[in-house]
Each structure stands twice: as structure tokens, then as C-alpha cells.
Amino acid sequence: MSESVAAEHDYIGLSEFPTMEATTMSDKTKTRDNNNGLNFKATELRLGLPGSESPERVDSRFLALNKSSCPVSGAKRVFSDAINESNKWIFSTGSTTATGDVGSGSGPGSSVVKDGKSTTFPKPAVPVKEKKSSATAPASKAQVVGWPPIRSFRKNSMASSQSQKPGNNSETEEAEAKSGPEQPCLYVKVSMEGAPYLRKIDLKTYKSYLELSSALEKMFSCFTIGQFGSHGGCGRDGLNESRLTDLLRGSEYVVTYEDKDSDWMLVGDVPWDMFICSCKKLRIMKSSEAIGLAPRVMEKCRSRN
Amino acid sequence: MGLRLPSKVLEHILSFIDSNEDRNSVSLVCKSWFETERKTRKRVFVGNCYAVSPAAVAKRFPEVRSLTLKGKPHFADYNLVPDGWGGYAWPWIEAMAAKCPSLEEIRLKRMVVTDECLEKIAASFKDFKVLVLTSCEGFSTDGIAAIAATCRNLRVLELRECIVEDLGGDWLSYFPESSTSLVSLDFSCLDSEVKISDLERLVSRCPNLSSLKLNPAVTLDGLVSLLRRAPQLTELGTGSFAAQLKPEAFSKLSEAFSNCKQLQSLSGLWDVLPEYLPALYSVCPGLTSLNLSYATVRMPDLVELLRRCSKLQKLWVMDLIEDKGLEAVASYCKELRELRVFPSAPDLDEANIPLTEQGLVFVSKGCRKLESVLYFCVQFTNAALLTIARKRPNLKCFRLCVIEPFAPDYKTNEPLDKGFKAIAEGCKDLRRLSVSGLLSDKAFKYIGKHAKKVRMLSIAFAGDSDLMLHHLLSGCESLKKLEIRDCPFGDTALLEHAAKLETMRSLWMSSCFVSFGACKLLSQKMPRLNVEVIDEHPPETRPESSPVERIYIYRTVAGPRMDTPEFVWTIHKNPEIGVSHLAIK
Fold it and tell me: In what residue span(s) does the F-box domain sit (chain B) (predicted)?
């Protein structure tokens, strides 16, 4: 059984586009002797990190809420790559016997086949996730949009009850004890710039910025969410990507929060425990509008240190 | 020859004709029948809100009492339709308010409904009775409050999986003390806590209340007190079960349930602890519908519950039920008609659940009345599909989601062509089909040929070439809705079968290889179709041969729609880009 070449790639492609590989394509065309009715070179989409190739694809205009596609996964990959650099995608080694069966003459005398214009394509690269345990949090799994086909309502319900794993009573009681009377539910409103609705989340159900960001991502899955960055030594739980580059891109969203002093801060700067004690409200806004927050954050950090 | 039925007589005859299909036929007989029919039609269903204009509907059916509308395409459920695409309820509400003040029932699915819409409904229809919103968005609890406060004869208020701006639980208190007409209330998708005392009073004063679906914020104590006040309930959606188990809480719950002797449908059960399940045992023998799809409970506990549900007809559950649990279902739930198995962990990495194709095979063998299936599974085999088709030729709806895209038959490594061929051939009454796994063009040849009654077909990550689409559009006589994603074909078959598209409600294709040029050509060729290109980047700035991200094509008598956002292109927007002599009306 011949297998197509499995190539490892960082799956970036905007998920709305089927990704095609030039090499696999040419293999197929050699064996199939098909007439390329369409010029694929012109339409070939290449994989690459956002910003490195085809920069016009990340169109900031389109990332505005009312016009966003769901989601602009290029930005999403950046986020997840930052968490888990070892995301590897393998092309599915689809059986080639399948394509072999569909010979050029098997159609019922249709003009499609007769013209020889039947355009056969190699299977679009599909991100089949390597099954390894390196994936740390759900956010690190770059997924195909809308697959598997589960309604967002269900996904959100599952996300919010993530802390409740199926288990025996003692496990749950333990969890209950932790979130017992001394730490009641901590509901905060999460709004997003331009969004027609806001959500409420219980901060107690998350244990780290990673979990929070993945939940927010799921909740506002139509929109992009920028990364949480961290300044040098301020945040233990923050990620090590520089936030400035994200801000400069101008098309990212960042998550901000209103703290006890009614100041608006960028999420990710302070240690998680400190964050949940002081966070009153969350707001997802365009990073271009959040630039002004940075200096304040530095000041606060300094004053706390 | 000259015989003509007096219209009164005809009206009387038509009063016995309920089905809209029949009424549509009646209206085609002659002008006078058209007139009589339209004046007497009470229930109007519009499957695509852009297929016909609100004004035309309101004008044609002045006596309409019940309006059902659907907006966004089905794949909007899976985030494939960008926000702002459309599906606005307002023009419909406005038109109805102006011409059909006797409207009593509005049912909307996948539409954008604003608070203004809800306020308008409340203000315009004096005898408004039924509001059902499914997968809608754009409104807040303020809008709901307006309905509650103003609609004196409100019987049904159901918010099913809507995205609602939740401004708090006050909306419930807007039901006046005088309102006693409620029959069904569903607020399961709201987040905020409602005042339990308000809810208790409401429930107490509505003797006809038979369906109540609570949101997760309602506690167990709340549930118990409500059940005590409404033991006549036939449908119940519980609140959250997440509370520590206390012995007296358990016995109270158990007792409350045992007094609900008419309960037939049970749902909710968020975060239910297995220790609470025995409280439900008393209602199990009477249950016909059970939704455990949010209950993260393991197989042994599920089986213990399900083996008592001998009358169960509809079961929704997560894959935590495992093959073994489904084997039990097959032996205990002999009346089962509908089975849905959802993944507990949609991410492949976490998929470690022992649920395989075998589970569905068990149920297919054991449940003779099974006719509707939605099954999520990591991988599948042709053999299983063959067995299912052989055992259950009475299947009407078969939706299989093999979670891993392009997954072949994992035992033989072949595509699942043979299996789906068996389904299409064997299940002659199949109305709805979703396919997945590795499929070649051959599979679609079979489906095109044999699936004569399939009205809705969903396809993802399948096929090899244009032949696939060609097979489908040249076969599938009853096809009304076709939705396709990530399949490698486009133009040729689409253009060749353009005429077929007018016999269908809609076609959705995303991440395929349909070129902008083809879309333009199709638009020009078929003026009674709306061809929408939904693309992040304006297609007119790209070469004609470049593929567009998504297309949505639907037949319409309403002409081009006026509310398209920036990212939706239609030929009416940039006529100069189309053929220069195209006349735009």
C-alpha cells in the first residue's frame, strides 16, 4: 500500500482555505496525467508564519468584529504556537487506492470527464494532530474551524464545566472543598469591543492564564484574541512573547481587565492569584487601543515590587 | 366545465387541509383557489428568510397566525458563517406588525433578533401566544422582559441555545401577577440567576404549565420547590446539580420527582453527580425523552439509569456511555427512535473513550424502531455501516461524524464508500444524511443514484474531484439543502448543474475550489438565484480563477438582498465587474 509522503509542517494556513502543497500536487499530476484546467500556481496557498508570507492575508480591516470571519486562525496559530512550540501537524496519509479507483473514465459519460478537465486534487492538508502528550492546554490544539461540528453552545457549556471531570464523589468533593465557602464563585463580565453581547465567567474555575485564555477563545470563537504577554520579571504565569510586536501588528486583540483601583490593565502581567483577587471586569479590545495601558502597567509592577 | 365551488364551500374544505405542501398545491389549481387558500392559511413556514420578501408574505397571507422563519445557513452553527452575515428578524416583524396583527406565534431559527424586535412583537400583536427562538442572537434579557410584561396571553416562551446579552435575572419578575397562561417556559441558555421566589409564584399560578426548562443557575433546592408546585410537568429541564450531596437533599429530590407522575421528558442535568441519579429512578419508566448530553457521568451509572427507561424513544448522551452502555441501551430501550451520541472531548488528543462503531451497531441491531442517528466517533468501518444499513432500513436521518478527517475504514484502510453505499441503497426513506471519513467520488455516485428521498446532505473533507458534485447534482432527486466544506472541487460541476440549484433551497460550499469567475457566471446565468460569495478578501481584487472562501447560493423570488455586509459579494454589488450588458433591475 503506497502512502503519500507525510510531511511535517506547522499548520498555519487560514483554516478557510484548503491548503495545498506544491510537491504533493505534482506527484498526483504525474500519475494521473490530468489536464490542469485551472492554474494552481496562481492559487497556491503557502504555509507560513503570519507576517512572514502573504502578509496581506491578515487584513486588519477584516478583523474588526462586525466583519470578522470565524476565526482568523492565522492569528490564532500565533497564540497557540507561543504556548506550545512543538505543535506539529502531519498530513493525513490518506489511502491512495481511493483516488486510484476514480479513474478518468468512470463517470457516466459526463462532459466533466470527457473533456479531460476533471480536476483532481490531492487531499488538502488536514491537520491531523500527532497523538502525543506534549499538548499542555486545550488552547494549544490548533483546530480546524467548525470541526468536529459541535454547536458553540455545547462547546461553551463544556468549557465552563471543564473543572467538573467525570469522577467519583471524593474527587468532586475535593474540588468542592477548594472552591468552598471561603472562595465563592467569582463571576466577572467579559465584554468585547463591538460585540453584541457580553458573557460572564467564573474566574475560580480557571487555574492559570492559559485556561482563561482558552476559555475566552472558545467563548468568543469568532474573534481573534491576542496573546497575553509578560514584561520581564513581572508575571510568573505570563508567556514570554513580547507583547509589543503584537501591538505593533495592530490587528490583534488583547484582553484587559479593570482592577480594584478601577484601572484598566493588560491581562497577564501580574501573578495569577493576584490577578483573580483584583480583577473586577474583563474586556477584550483591539491592541491598538490598548497601547496606552503599557506604561501604567509598568508603574504598577514597580510599585508592587 | 362551468362548475365552480362557492368560496365558502371551498373555505370549509380547506379548513381540513393543514399541511403546507398540500396547501401549496391547492394554491396552484386556479386563481380562485389561490385566493381562497391564501386568505385561509394560518401557518406559514419560510425555510430561508431571503427567499421571499416579508412584505410579499404579509400581503399574501393576511390571516396568518403562526410564522416560522429560518435565517442563517446550517453551518453557521459551527462558526463557518461570519458575524454580521445577515438573517435579521426586524423586517419580518415590521411587515407582520403592519399587515397581520392577528399573528400569535413566531418561531425563529438562526436569526438576529434585537430587543427592538421583541418590543415590537410585544406591542403589535394583541393576542401573542408563542415565541420560540432557536440559535438566535442579538437580544438581551430586556427584550425578554418586554415580552413577559406585555403579552397577556403568552403561552410559550422558549429560548433554545440562544446567545443572549444577560443583564440579570430581573426579566422573570416582569411576568405580571395576573399572567396565568404559561404552558411552556425555557430559559436554559441564560446565565443569570433568577429570583427563585418569583419563579415559584409564577409556576404556582400557571396551572397549565407542562414544560419547564431551567438554567444552570437554578439550584437543587430551587428545583425541588418548583417540582412541588408543578407536579403536572411533562417536560423538565433541570438546573445545575453541582452541589454537595446531603442525605436530606437527596431524599427531598427523590420525593419531588416521584410526585411528577406525568414526566415524559428530562433534560439539563448539568454537572450531575452520579449519586443523584437514583433520585430520577422513579420517573424513568415513564420517560420517552432523555437528554444526558451534558451529564458527565460514567457508563455504569448511565446504564443503571437507562435500564429503567423501557419506554425511551429519544436518547441524547455523550460518548461516556461507551460501547458497553449502548449495548445495554439496545437491550433495555426497545422503543428507541432517536439516538445522538456527542463527544465528551472534541479534541482528538483526549479521545480515549471506548466508544467505537460497535456501539452504534448494537443499537441498530437491538432497537427496531431506530430511525434517527447522530453519532460522533473517532473512526469507523465499512462493515459496521453495512450492518447498520441491513438491520435498519427504516432509518430516516443518518448523521455520522467521524471525527478524524479522511479517516478510512480502520480495519481495511479502504474508503468508506461501500458503507455509505449500503446506507443510501438500503435506507430507502432516508431524508437526511451526513457523511464523513475517507470518501472517494464513488461514494457520491452511489449516493446520487440511490438516495432518492434525501433532502439534506452534509459533506466534509471528502471526494476527489468535480465528479463528486456532479454525481450529487445529477442524482439526488429530492435534494433541497446541500452543504459542503473542504472538498476539492468546484466550477465545472457547479456550472453544469446550475438548473438543479433552482430546485433546491440552498447550497453552501466553503473551503472548496469554486472560483470567483464561476460565481459571476452562475449569477449571470441564473437570475433567480442569489449567489453570495462570503470572503474575507474582496474577490474582485483577485484573479478570476482564484478560489473563494465560501459561497452560499439559494433560490429566491425576492431579488437581491439589501442588507449584505462588506464581506458578502453578490453580482448586484459590482455590476460593472460582471458582464457589461447585464441589466440590473
Answer: 1-48
